[in-house]
Amino acid sequence: MEFDTIAAISTPMGEGAIAIVRLSGEEAVKISDKIFRSPSGKKLEEEKSHTIHYGHLIDPSTNDVVEEVMVSLMRGPKTFTREDVVEINCHGGIVSVNRVLQLVLRNGARLAEPGEFTKRAFLNGRIDLSQAEAVMDLIRAKTDRAMNVALGQMDGKLSRLIGDLRQALIETLAQVEVNIDYPEYDDVEEMTIPVLLEKCSWVQSEIQKLLQTSSQGKILREGLSTVILGRPNVGKSSLLNSLVQENKAIVTDIAGTTRDIIEEYVNVRGVPLRLVDTAGIRETEDIVERIGVERSRQVLKEADLILLVLNAAEELSVEDERLFETIQNMDFIVVVNKTDLPRKIDLEKVEQLANGRKVVTTSLLKEEGVIELEEAIAALFFEGQIEADDLTYVSNTRHISLLHQALETISDAIEGAEGGVPVDIVQIDVTRTWEILGEIVGDTVQESLINQLFSQFCLGK
Ligand code: GDP
Ligand code: ZN
């Protein structure tokens, strides 16, 4: 495939120590040679691939020195895009890096569209679609664990598994085909159906396994949405603060403020929590009053976990009981706070209301009990589960929806085969499953979907 030469800043914007302007395409080296001067005067054109060179950038129209740089030269196909790639390492800072980018653009490169480098890697066959999407997740990954999932996927873990499933389906289809074409060799139906059922059942159970990981995968990617709930003055803000202090927020630029609610990302024992903070709300107002019944219901509905805070120094109030009722069908942990004060709360009653959920006592004032709370959160998340790194996780919404479709068609195939539907009809469902799984790795997707996916990338990736 032939493409023009694209360029973009490929390091994050802001005050980095160095910044990189990346060029990719047939003319990448030629364009660089127009503006790069090495002390020896040697052209990049004459240099070996995968080498790095010190020198200056010169604006050929004025002969002014623009920057002092290191230039990496990488010829295709052993590059990210499989094309010739030149990376210009210049000083960080928005002004200087933009000057370099402008210079490159004036001398023949075109500004890359968001995700275009990755798109080229995909179109040039270096990575498949699920790997490309993993690159996108990686850029957005908020915790180490989420990063590992993304890395695993980029590495092709999901692609390999999907590949195995498709291979099994294709082999089954081929075998069925042979049996239909040469009926004289065997009793076709009897021979074919058990083979077909065995393979399809295996594919079905693998898809089910993958789907089981999907809720965790989503959580790893977006954080476990956690709402701190409780009456005014019980210690909600204190709890938020101690969780944030002990587990330094991971991505500060993402922790944004919406009009009503503040979100903080913390990493509790590898579990990413997106703490929905009602601490910005005035102490005298409760969350329901402030943001309205509807909105607070919605916040609660979207929560993966509730931390219900109670005051140990007061008796349980009607309002406390009402809160228990509101969250009775959700995952929650009860935090009985202020245990340093004389106890008035009836702990037995609390246990009763908690109905099997964990109850943790804390004194946030004395910094006691927070570790137990963190352990309880982690235990809830990993309960009965293998450590995240050992599994292939599906966290991408598009993948999840395709897997659901594939599960449906493969189940139809199995049902049909068991119910005596003719083999050539069952074949249609098997073929369809093969196609749907192919969409996950990008084998059977249309151009428009590809464009849409890649436009979601950050510029420069
Ligand atoms: P919120 O209204 O639920 O957010 O409660 P805050 O976190 O603002 O706390 C209300 C008051 O209780 C503050 O004066 C805190 O210092 C105090 N407080 C919080 N935790 C404890 C605790 O464990 N023991 C005691 N004695 N006071 C606490
Ligand atoms: Zn508060």
Throw out a few tags for this protein.
single chain; alpha/beta; Gyrase A, domain 2; Four Helix Bundle (Hemerythrin (Met), subunit A); Rossmann fold; 7-stranded mixed beta sheet; 6-stranded mixed beta sheet; 13 strands; flat; binds guanosine-5'-diphosphate; binds zinc ion; metal ion binding; identical protein binding; tRNA processing
Number of strands: 13
Overall 3D geometry? flat
Give the N-to-C terminal Cα separation. 20 Å
Q: Give the full name of the CATH homologous superfamily of the largest domain.
A: P-loop containing nucleotide triphosphate hydrolases
The level of helicity is 40-55%
The distinct ligands, each listed once, are: guanosine-5'-diphosphate, zinc ion
Q: Which oligomeric state applies?
A: single chain
Low-confidence stretches are 248-260, 279-285, 384-391
> Largest sheet at a glance?
7 strands, mixed
Helix/strand-derived category reads alpha/beta
Sequence of strands across the biggest β-sheet: 3-4-5-6-2-1-7
CATH class of the largest domain: Alpha Beta
Q: N-to-C SSE series?
A: EEHEEEEHEHHHHHHEHEEHEHEHEHHHH
